[in-house]
Amino acid sequence: MAVESPTVESLKKEIAALKKQRGAVIMGHYYQTADIQDIADYIGDSLALARIAADIKEKVIVMCGVHFMGETAKILCPDKIVLEPDSEAGCSLADSCPAEEFKKFVEAHPDHTVISYVNTSAAVKALTDVVVTSGNAKEIVDTFDKDAKIIFGPDRNLGNYINSVTGRSMLLWDGACHVHEKFSVEKTAQLKAQHPDAKVLVHPECTNPLRLLADCIGSTAVLLKYAVESSADKFIVATESGILHQMRSKCPEKTFIPAPPSDSTCACNECAYMKLNTLEKLRNCLRDMAPEVTVDSHIAQKARKPIEKMLELSSKK
Ligand code: SF4
């Protein structure tokens, strides 16, 4: 006899009961599926989730995002149990910066301050002076002298963008996110021509030609705020399509059009890693208390300092 799949409603009930039983809190990134965003206790970008994790009271954190986010939570809260629904949920950007290679790069430039994007492994953070997110990178880079020698890794697009808005020449690691690099400039320009009244919202992990089409460049939180506060009623959105759920929920009267990727007939652009998490896996991880995120204590100790430095330097606006 075929086993029936649980319904979304029954899964949500099970998750709520298990969450209570385990004393857990569910944190979700804006790129998660809509059903996970709807059940999360906290939803946000990497900066918001790191800030919340630093102050969390519950003893179990379920991080619905990708692995480096779970690691960041574990580094900030070593005494808590951090769970992730799918341990295979990695990140192409973090993978583009292996710690051993980055270490050689850093050692070749001993007089440089090392600034790393939060989308890195704990081992790369351990080689870093200050961590940044797309939401605070400019603000934090601006705290350094204009002529300071800086290594910025691993995202070359975000690094180029920060160089352009701060007038600096930071040394960039040559990494990138496969999702944000794949938006089609041509198709996005065509969409803009079809919808001349639409504002174009672009994440800084996108390439420079795409950023040139933008009315607003910023982190997911910045793009969301712009969409909510703008008097425009139509937007073309160039970041992972999970953010559209929040935009449409907060502005049901406005129209949001996903910017298309270049290599597919699909209209929107999804992160396959973020989308590995499902309600069923979320239920399973609370039921089994696994997979649990662990970070080597020696690495965690070193990686904690640059994350705390970020929280200290970054304003809460
Ligand atoms: S969207 Fe890009 S940067 Fe974000 S988790 Fe996916 S691969 Fe990593």
Topology:
Elements: H1 8-22, E1 24-29, H2 34-39, E2 42-44, H3 46-55, E3 60-64, H4 67-76, E4 81-83, H5 92-95, H6 99-107, E5 113-117, H7 122-125, E6 130-132, H8 137-141, E7 150-153, H9 156-166, E8 171-172, H10 185-194, E9 199-202, H11 208-211, E10 216-217, H12 220-229, E11 234-238, H13 243-250, E12 255-258, H14 279-288, H15 297-313
Parallel strand pairs: 1-2, 1-3, 3-4, 5-6, 5-7, 7-8, 9-10, 9-11, 11-12
The chain binds iron/sulfur cluster.
Bound ligand species:
iron/sulfur cluster
- Which sheet architecture does the biggest sheet show? 4 strands, parallel
Radius of gyration: 20 Å
Look at the helices and sheets and give the structural class.
alpha/beta
The N- and C-terminal alpha carbons lie at a distance of 56 Å
Helix content: 40-55%
Q: Please write the string of helix (H) and strand (E) elements.
A: HEHEHEHEHHEHEHEHEHEHEHEHEHH
Per DSSP E runs of 2 or more residues, the count of β-strands stands at 12
Mean pLDDT: 95
Shape: globular
Strand order of the largest sheet: 2-1-3-4
Number of continuous helical runs: 15
